[in-house]
Design goal:
The complex is a heterotrimer. Chain A is of the alpha/beta class. Chain A has one domain: 3-Layer(aba) Sandwich (Rossmann fold), CATH 3.40.50. Chain A contains 11 helices and 8 strands. The longest helix of chain A is centred in the C-terminal third of the chain and has 18 residues.
C-alpha cells in the first residue's frame, strides 16, 4: 500500500491521532511544559498568553528544557507575575520595559563565560517593548549578533496601559490615543514600522513571522530558530480581544484573517533574505478582517454598510501590496498543505 | 533551597492558587451532535463512527460498527443511493465523502477476510417467522437472531435475496456479493426456506410455532398500463426483463428497445437491454429530466452506455412495431399535458417500467390488517393492527429503497423483540443536528473525493461485469479521512491547544478531554476553533 | 579591576570613563581575563541592562560610566538594586549638563544617591583600585550593586604609581561569586515580579535594612583589606588630623589631597584644623561621621555638587549626623564642571571658617560680577534668553551681535 499522506486535518489542527506523535505539535502533547501555566490574569481569550505558551513550550522542546527567558514589562509580564503568584514554570527574569534584549545579551554572555552553552536564551516583549521603547536595545542586540531568540508578541498597541497607539498600530485603528473622531478617524496612514524587515536589515541569521492561528508554522519557526545561534527574531501576531474589540472566542479567527487577507505576511528570512513564505490558503477581503473588530467599527455604519470606502480601499491596497511583495498567493494552488509538517521545507 | 528575595522572586507555578474559573459567565461543554450522514441514513448507520474507525485502518472494527445496524455492507456499498452523501457537510467544502464506496470497501474486505459476527445461542425461546428474504426480511432476521430469537425466513423464490437477487442487474450488484452476505446471515443460525410461499399466515405460524411474524414481501409485481392496439407479445415488464436477464440463458430482446418510465428500474431495464444486444435503447418519459425519479448516477451511467432519452413523451399507440408518441408540455403545476403533436418510434420491444406493487394475497386472509392503496398500514413500531405481526420494506408506505428496507428490518426486529418481552420499544432521543454552520472547516485539509475506477463505457454494452470498481486500500483510507466528523470529537487536540488558560485536560491520551473549570475563563476559543462543532457554550448559573 | 576576575564587562564609551573600558577591552581581547566577555553596548542603558542580565545568570558583572551616561541608564541603575544584583560600576565622576561639560564634579553621583546602590568615593588612584576589590566583595555579600566613584580626569587620567596586589592575594580576599538567585533551568524562579501596595513598602524597607547592614560590613571589609594588603583603603570615613581640630573640612574624592596639603600648611601655622574624607556616601555612616566630627567647633563641607534651589547635598547628611550638637555646618560648593579648586581659594575659605566668617553656603571662586549682571538682566526682562550665551558674551567669548 502506498503511504497515504492525507490526514483529515493534516497539519492544520493542533494534534492528529492519525499521524505519528513526532509529527504533532508540541501543544498536542499532554506532557508539554506549560511554560505559562493556569491562573494567570490575562483577559479571556488573550492571544498573547496563547502565543507565549506556544512559543516557549516549543522552545523548551527544542532545547530539551535548557531555557531561560527574559521578559520586558508589558501585559505578559503583568498578568503572569503579580506578587505573590507567578504563572511561569521556567527560569524567567523581568527587568524593565525597554531593556529585555540587552538583559538577554547579558544572560547569554554570562552563560558563555560560565561554560553553560547548553542553556539557551529567549527574550520577549510586546510590540511596545520591541518596536518602540526597546528598539534601541533590540537593534544593538541584532547588530552584535548576540545569541538570543527575541520574540515580539505583537498586539498592535499598548494594551497594558489601556490601548494606546504604538509604532505597530495599523492605520485607521482606533486606540485611546487615536480615537475614532474627526475627519480622519483612528490611526494615521503612514509607512508603519515593520520590525521584521528592520530585523532583516541587520542581516541576522534568522527572522520569521507567525501568528497564533497557525500553530505548526509557529512551532516550526521556533525550533528552526533554536537550531541556529546568533540573533534571531520571531514576530508573532497575537490578537487582543480587549484592544481590538473582537470577541474573546475570535482570537484565533482574527489572526487567521490577518494572514488570509494578506495584511500580515507570514514568512521566514535568513541573513536578510526572505527564504520562505506561508502562502495564503483562502484569500479573504480585508473587510472580513475589519468587520469583526471594534477598533475598525467606525469604518462601517450601524447597518453594517461600509461608511469609509476610501479607508477600506486603502487598507485593501496595503494588503494587496503585501501579497505582491511577498508573493503570498504564488504556489498556494501548487502546493496545498495537507500532510503534516509540509507547510515549509525542513531546515537546512 | 536558597533564600529568595522577598516578593521580587517567586516560586514557579504559584499562580495555580488563583482560580480564574470564577471569571466565567459561560462554560464550554462537550457535546455529541448528530452528523447529517447518520441523520439521513435510512438504515440508521452510525456512519461518522465507522468512518472514524476506518480512518486509522481499523477496518474490521469499522465493519463491525456497520454490522451493528446493517448486515449487508457489501450490498449497500453498491446498491444504496446514499442519501448520506447527499446530506454530507463536506459537499459544501468540496465534494461529499464517498461513504458508499467505503462501505463497499469494508463489506468486500469482510467477505474476503471471512469476518463473521458471533452467533448467540437462541436464548429467548421465541420463534419469529419472516416472510420474504429481501433486504428488509434479511435485516429483520439478522437482528432478531442477534437478539437471541430463533428465526425462519420463508422465501417464495428459488433463491434468497428478493430484489437484490432478481431486481438489480449484476453489473451493479454481482451475485456472489449478495450470496456472500446472505450466507453470513445464515451462518448465524437463520434458516431460509426457499420456494416456500406463505399464503396463510395463521397456518404457517401455528405450524411452525412462531410467536411473531415480519412481513417483508416486497413490491415484486410490475404495474401494467394499457396501450391501444398494443401487441402484448412485444411488451415485457421491466422486472420480468431484469429477472430473466439473471438466468443462464438470457432472453433476446431485439435491436430496437423502448423503455417506458423514468425511475431507476427504467434505467436498469434500458442498460440491461443494451447488454442483451439492443443497438438502440430509448427511454420514454413523460416529464423532464429534473423531474425524473431515477438517481443521477443511474441516468449518467445509462447515457454513458448509449441509452437515449425522450423527455416529455407518452406512448399513446402501438401498431406494427411502431409506437405512437405524443409530445407533452408541463403545465403551471409541473404536470405533463398532451399537446396534440405526435411522432412515431420504431420498436422491436416495449419494456414497461411504470412502477411496482406488492402482492397482497397473504394479508387478504388477515382482515384486521388494514391495506391502504397498495401498502400495509403499520404503526410507528412497524406493527400491523394484528398483534405480533409486523411489516416493512416496500410493502409499507415510504421510500422504496433497499436501504429503507434494511432500516425497517432493524426497527421491526427491535420492536418485535420488545413486544416479545412485553416491553415498549425503546425510542432513542436524537441529538441536535451537526449542521454545516457548526463546523470550522479551516482545519480540514483540502482533498476532493477519490474517484473509483469505472469500466470503460464501450465495453459495458457487451458485459454484465460490475461497472464500478472498488477502492483500493490507499484510496479507501484517503476517502475515510475526508470525513469531517461533524458534531463528534475526533481527537484533534484543538481545544487542548488553543486554550489560553490551559484549562482543557486530556482524560487519557486518545480518549477525549475534560474542562478544568477551576481555570477556564469561558472565552469560548475552544468552541470557535473546534473543527467539528463538538463543544458548546452554556450559561453559568450565577 | 582586572584582578577581580570580572566575567562580563559591558560598557558604552563616555568621557572620562573611556580609558577604563579601553584597557579592559584590550585585556579581554588578549585573553588575559579569560573567561570574560566584553560587550560593546549601544548605550549606557543597554550596558547596565547587560550587566543585570549577566549578574542574573550568575556572572560577576562590571560596567563603567559617567555623567549623562549614568542618567541615561538610571532606570536600569534603580532596577539592578531593586532586583538585588551585585553589579559593580565605576563612575568616572563628571558634571551633568546642560550645558554639556565633560569635566569633573559629583553631580552625577548625587543624582544616583537614592538609587539603592552603595556609593564609595576614592581619594586616589590607589584607593580606586583597592575599592574595586572591596566593592565586589561587598556587592556579592549583600546581593546589591556597588558604585565606585572616582573623579573624572583627576583620577581616571592620572598616572600614579599603584601597588597592584598579586592575583593570589586578590583571590583569597575575593571568593568566586555565589549568587543568591540565578536564572537556572534546573532551579527555575520568576525573578522580577510586580509588587503592589501590599508588599512594596516592605521590599523598600528591606533594601534600606540591607544598606544599614552594609555600614558595618564596609568597615569590616576595609579592615580585612588593610590586614591583607597593608593599606588603609576603603572603610567608611578617613579622618586626617582631626582629633583635636576645631575646624574640620569634610569632602569626598580626590580633592582631599589638596585639602590635606592646606590642612598641613595651616597646621604648620598653628591652626587647629583637620579633614574628614567620606568614603561611603551611601550608605551614609551617620555614627562614624558624628564620632569623627563631634569634637569640632565648626564643620566645613566642601562638595562638588549642588542641589539646585537648596544647597549642599553631602552637607545635609553631615548636618544630620551632627544633629543635636552645637556644631555649625557650612557648605562650600566647589569644583563644578571641572573648575580647579586651588590651595589659595581653599585657604581663604578655611581662614574664614576659623574666623567664624564663612557663610552657610559659599560658591568657591564664583565670578560674582558676572552672575550679578546676569541676575540684573533676568530681573529686568522676564525672559532672559539663554543665560550661558549671555555670560559668554560678557566674557567676550561670543560676539555681541545678533
Amino acid at each position: 500500500m502506498a503511504p497515504v499522506r492525507f490526514y483529515q486535518v493534516g497539519s492544520f489542527a493542533v494534534g492528529n491521532r492519525l499521524v505519528d506523535r513526532s509529527e504533532r505539535t508540541v501543544q498536542s502533547d499532554a506532557g508539554r511544559s506549560n511554560s505559562l501555566t493556569s491562573g494567570h490574569r490575562a483577559c479571556q481569550g488573550c492571544g498573547e498568553a496563547l502565543g507565549a505558551r506556544y512559543a516557549l513550550d516549543a522552545a523548551m522542546r527544542a532545547t530539551g528544557g535548557r531555557l531561560v527567558a527574559v521578559n520586558a514589562t508589558g501585559c505578559l509580564e503583568v498578568f503572569s507575575t503579580p506578587y505573590p503568584e507567578t504563572s511561569w514554570q521556567i527560569a524567567w527574569l523581568h527587568s524593565l520595559f525597554a531593556n529585555a534584549p540587552a538583559v538577554a545579551t547579558g544572560v547569554a554572555a554570562a552563560l558563555r563565560v560560565k561554560g553553560r552553552s547548553d542553556i539557551r536564551v529567549v527574550s520577549q516583549a510586546g510590540d511596545g517593548g520591541a518596536v518602540d521603547i526597546g528598539f534601541g536595545c533590540l537593534s544593538g542586540m541584532f547588530e552584535r549578533n548576540d545569541d538570543v531568540l527575541f520574540i515580539c508578541y505583537d498586539n498592535e498597541a499598548y494594551m497594558n496601559t489601556g490601548v494606546q497607539r504604538s509604532g505597530a498600530t495599523p492605520p485607521a485603528a482606533r486606540t485611546a490615543t487615536t480615537e475614532a473622531v474627526g475627519p480622519h478617524p483612528g490611526n494615521v496612514f503612514g509607512q508603519g514600522k515593520n520590525l521584521p524587515e528592520i530585523a532583516m536589515a541587520h542581516r541576522i541569521p534568522y527572522v520569521a513571522t507567525a501568528t497564533v492561528a497557525d500553530l505548526h508554522d509557529l512551532e516550526d519557526k521556533v525550533s528552526r530558530a533554536m537550531a541556529v545561534h546568533g540573533s534571531r527574531y520571531l514576530h508573532i501576531l497575537v490578537p487582543c480581544p480587549l484592544g481590538w474589540g473582537s470577541a474573546s472566542s475570535d482570537t484565533v479567527r482574527v489572526a487567521r484573517l490577518a494572514t488570509q487577507t494578506g495584511l500580515f505576511p507570514v514568512f521566514e528570512a535568513e541573513r536578510g533574505r526572505v527564504v520562505r513564505v506561508t502562502p495564503i490558503r483562502r484569500l479573504a477581503p480585508v473587510e472580513d478582517y475589519l468587520r469583526i473588530q471594534g477598533r475598525f467599527r467606525h469604518l462601517f455604519d450601524p447597518e453594517g454598510a461600509v461608511a469609509q470606502p476610501g479607508v477600506v480601499a486603502a487598507l485593501q491596497s496595503m494588503a494587496d501590496a503585501t501579497i505582491a511583495r511577498y508573493g503570498l498567493l504564488a504556489g498556494a494552488e501548487a502546493e496545498p498543505r495537507q500532510g503534516t509538517g509540509t507547510g515549509t521545507e525542513a531546515a537546512s | 533551597m536558597k533564600e529568595l528575595p522577598f516578593a521580587i522572586t517567586l516560586e514557579v507555578g504559584s499562580s495555580l492558587a488563583n482560580r480564574t474559573g470564577s471569571w466565567r459567565v459561560e462554560r464550554p461543554v462537550y457535546v455529541d451532535r448528530l452528523p447529517p450522514c447518520n441523520d439521513a441514513c435510512p438504515a440508521g448507520e452510525n456512519i461518522q463512527q465507522w468512518l472514524y474507525l476506518a480512518e486509522d485502518g481499523s477496518y474490521e472494527a469499522a465493519w463491525r460498527r456497520i454490522m451493528a445496524e446493517n448486515p449487508l455492507p457489501a450490498v449497500m456499498g453498491r446498491a444504496c443511493f446514499h442519501p448520506c452523501e447527499t446530506a454530507c457537510n463536506r459537499a459544501q467544502v468540496d465534494e461529499a465523502v464517498g461513504i458508499n464506496e467505503l462501505e463497499r470497501f469494508l463489506g468486500d474486505r469482510a467477505l474476503a477476510e471471512g469476518w463473521a459476527v458471533a452467533a448467540p445461542e437462541p436464548a429467548s425461546g421465541s420463534r419469529v417467522l419472516v416472510v420474504g428474504s429481501g433486504p428488509g426480511g434479511l435485516s429483520a432476521a439478522y437482528h432478531l437472531r442477534l437478539l437471541g430469537h430463533d428465526v425462519v425466513v420463508a422465501e417464495s423464490s428459488p433463491e434468497p435475496g428478493g430484489m437484490m437477487r432478481y431486481g438489480i442487474p449484476t453489473y451493479r450488484l454481482p451475485r456472489h456479493i449478495v450470496h456472500g452476505e446472505i450466507r453470513r446471515i445464515q451462518a448465524l443460525g437463520v434458516t431460509i426456506e426457499c420456494g416456500r410461499r406463505v399464503d396463510d399466515l395463521d397456518a404457517a405460524m401455528e405450524d411452525g410455532h412462531f410467536d411473531a411474524a415480519f412481513l417483508a414481501i416486497g413490491a415484486q409485481r410490475s404495474k401494467h398500463i394499457d396501450i391501444p392496439a398494443g401487441d402484448s407479445a412485444r411488451m415485457v415488464s421491466a422486472l420480468d426483463l431484469l429477472h430473466r436477464a439473471q438466468e443462464p440463458d438470457r432472453p433476446s430482446i431485439g435491436r430496437r428497445v423502448v423503455v417506458y418510465g423514468g425511475g431507476d428500474t427504467a434505467m436498469d431495464a434500458a442498460r440491461t437491454a443494451r447488454r442483451l444486444g439492443a443497438a438502440d435503447a430509448v427511454v420514454v418519459y413523460r416529464r423532464t429530466r429534473d423531474r425524473m425519479p431515477a438517481h443521477e448516477e443511474e441516468l449518467r451511467d445509462a447515457v454513458e452506455e448509449g441509452v437515449r432519452l425522450k423527455w416529455l413523451s407518452t406512448i399513446v399507440g402501438d401498431e406494427d412495431g411502431s409506437l405512437t408518441i405524443e409530445r407533452m408540455a408541463l403545465d403551471d403545476h409541473g404536470f405533463p399535458q398532451p399537446t396534440g403533436e405526435f411522432e412515431t418510434l420504431e420498436a422491436d420491444a416495449l419494456v414497461l417500467a411504470v412502477g411496482q406493487a406488492a402482492d397482497l394475497t397473504l394479508v387478504r386472509s388477515l382482515p384486521e390488517i388494514a391495506v391502504h392503496g397498495e401498502v400495509i398500514e403499520v404503526g410507528p413500531d412497524m406493527m400491523t393492527a394484528r398483534p405480533g405481526v409486523f411489516a416493512g420494506g416496500d410493502v409499507v408506505a415510504g421510500a422504496r429503497t433497499l436501504t429503507d428496507a434494511v432500516g425497517h428490518g432493524k426497527k421491526a426486529a427491535r420492536a418485535i423483540d420488545a413486544w416479545l418481552r412485553g416491553e415498549a420499544p425503546a425510542s432513542g432521543a436524537r441529538h441536535a443536528l451537526a449542521g454545516f454552520d457548526r463546523l470550522n472547516t479551516w482545519y480540514y485539509a483540502d482533498a476532493p473525493q477519490a474517484q473509483r475506477p469505472r469500466l470503460d463505457a464501450a465495453r459495458r454494452a457487451s458485459t454484465f461485469d460490475e461497472v464500478v470498481a472498488g477502492l483500493d486500500e490507499s484510496t479507501a483510507l484517503f476517502e475515510a479521512r475526508r470525513c469531517l466528523s461533524c458534531g463528534n470529537c475526533f481527537q484533534c487536540d484543538n481545544c487542548f491547544g488553543v486554550c489560553p488558560d490551559n484549562a482543557v485536560l486530556k482524560v487519557e491520551e486518545g480518549h477525549g478531554y475534560s474542562f478544568d473549570y477551576d481555570f477556564c475563563k469561558g472565552c469560548g476559543l475552544c468552541v470557535q476553533e473546534c473543527p467539528c462543532g463538538a463543544i458548546e457554550m452554556v450559561p453559568e448559573e450565577i | 579591576m582586572a584582578l577581580c576576575r570580572p566575567e562580563v564587562i559591558c560598557a558604552y564609551p563616555i568621557s572620562p570613563q573611556t580609558h577604563i573600558i579601553e584597557a579592559l577591552s584590550e585585556f579581554v581581547k588578549r585573553g588575559a581575563l579569560a573567561p570574560c566577555e566584553f560587550v560593546n553596548a549601544e548605550s549606557e542603558f543597554a550596558a547596565m541592562s547587560v550587566a543585570i542580565g549577566a549578574s542574573a545568570a550568575g556572572a560577576r558583572a562590571f560596567t563603567a560610566t559617567a555623567s549623562q551616561g549614568l542618567l541615561f541608564m538610571m532606570e536600569a541603575v534603580y532596577n539592578a538594586s531593586g532586583l538585588g544584583f551585585p553589579v559593580v560600576m565605576t563612575l568616572a565622576n563628571r558634571a551633568v549638563g546642560a550645558p554639556i561639560n565633560i569635566w569633573n564634579d559629583h553631580s552625577d553621583a548625587m543624582a544616583a544617591r537614592d538609587a539603592g546602590w552603595v556609593q564609595l568615593f576614592a581619594q586616589s588612584v590607589q584607593e580606586a583600585a583597592d575599592l574595586h576589590l572591596q566593592a565586589f566583595r561587598l556587592a556579592e555579600e549583600l546581593s546589591g550593586p556597588v558604585m565606585v566613584c572616582m573623579d573624572g580626569f583627576v583620577l581616571t587620567h592620572a598616572t600614579e604609581r599603584v601597588d597592584l596586589p598579586s592575583q593570589q592575594a586578590v583571590d583569597a580576599f575575593l571568593p568566586p561569586y555565589e549568587p543568591r538567585q540565578v536564572l537556572d533551568p534546573d532551579a527555575p524562579y520568576s525573578i522580577g515580579a510586580m509588587v503592589g501596595p501590599e508588599a512594596f513598602e516592605e521590599v523598600r524597607y528591606l533594601a534600606h535594612a540591607r544598606q544599614l547592614a552594609a555600614v558595618e560590613r564596609i568597615a569590616e571589609i576595609g579592615s580585612e583589606f588593610a590586614e591583607a594588603f597593608g593599606r588603609d583603603s576603603g572603610g567608611l570615613v578617613h579622618s586626617y588630623r582631626s582629633a583635636d581640630a576645631e575646624v574640620v573640612v569634610v569632602a569626598m574624592g580626590s580633592v582631599l589631597g589638596t585639602i590635606k596639603e592646606v590642612v598641613d600648611a595651616q597646621r604648620a601655622g598653628g591652626a587647629r584644623i583637620g579633614a574628614l574624607g567620606v568614603t561611603s556616601f551611601r550608605p551614609f555612616p551617620l555614627d562614624a561621621v558624628r564620632q569623627a566630627l563631634g569634637g569640632a567647633r565648626r564643620v566645613v563641607v566642601l562638595e562638588k555638587s549642588v542641589s539646585v534651589g537648596f544647597g549642599g547635598v553631602l552637607s545635609t547628611d553631615v548636618a544630620l549626623a551632627l544633629n543635636g550638637l552645637a556644631v555649625p555646618v557650612s557648605t562650600v560648593v566647589a569644583g563644578l564642571g571641572g573648575r580647579p579648586i586651588t590651595e589659595s581659594a581653599l585657604r581663604s575659605v578655611l581662614e574664614a571658617a576659623q574666623g567664624g566668617r564663612l557663610e552657610k553656603l559659599t560658591f568657591l571662586d564664583l565670578k560674582h560680577e558676572l552672575v550679578a549682571r546676569e541676575l540684573e538682566r533676568m530681573a529686568a526682562r522676564r525672559r532672559s534668553g539663554p543665560s550661558a550665551e549671555n555670560m559668554l558674551r560678557d566674557l567676550g567669548i561670543v560676539g555681541a551681535g545678533g
